[in-house]
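tokens incoming
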């Protein structure tokens, strides 16, 4: 009686042990853990993907712009709401482009002027590379040139008081002696413009 039961018990235990060995071998096999731990397609959709090339986020902000007053001999401050980037170079470009896009007759910047590039160096100097329209379309005169420079510089200072201390104006990528022959623009200009009395 015990002799016939012994082989049956051995067979059952043998099957159990064999099953455990098969499961253990499968579990330790290379690549099996990846299969077990891989996310389902639905779970993968929920995992945020990080792209290092994505530019820093932007948000709607109110910016200040200096525009011509009623008599076109002085500047007044106007506000505008724009999507402003968290990246300083991009934000400088956005503010300057908004200034250039003002309706004709309200800006001290010559019509047709556009921005080629904007960036800020490690010395807190902003570089604004304008099209040649800034020079060739300028009406001339010392007061008009002063208002053009003040519009640009004060707008930068108002929106980036801590980040940008000076601005270098470029025309088609090059420094120029002057926009209209009265003020030196060959060197970076302080963004806080001194009042100038015209005789």
């Amino acid at each position: 009686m015990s002799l016939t039961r012994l082989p049956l018990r051995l067979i059952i235990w043998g099957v159990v042990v064999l099953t455990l060995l098969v499961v253990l071998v499968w579990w330790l096999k290379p690549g099996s853990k990846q299969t077990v731990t891989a996310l389902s397609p639905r779970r993968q959709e929920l995992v945020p993907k990080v792209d290092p090339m994505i530019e820093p986020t932007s948000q709607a902000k109110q910016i200040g712009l200096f525009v011509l007053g009623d008599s076109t001999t002085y500047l007044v401050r106007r506000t505008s709401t724009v999507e402003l980037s968290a990246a300083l170079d991009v934000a400088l470009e956005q503010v300057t482009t908004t200034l250039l896009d003002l309706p004709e007759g309200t800006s001290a910047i010559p019509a047709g002027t556009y921005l080629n590039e904007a960036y800020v160096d490690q010395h807190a100097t902003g570089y604004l590379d304008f099209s040649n329209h800034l020079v060739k379309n300028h009406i001339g005169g010392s007061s008009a040139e002063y208002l053009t420079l003040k519009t640009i510089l004060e707008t930068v200072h108002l929106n980036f008081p801590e980040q940008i201390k000076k601005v270098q104006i470029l025309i088609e990528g090059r420094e120029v002696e002057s926009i209209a022959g009265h003020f030196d623009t060959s060197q970076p200009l302080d963004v806080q413009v001194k009042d100038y009395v015209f005789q």
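note: The chain has two domains: 2-46, 58-190.
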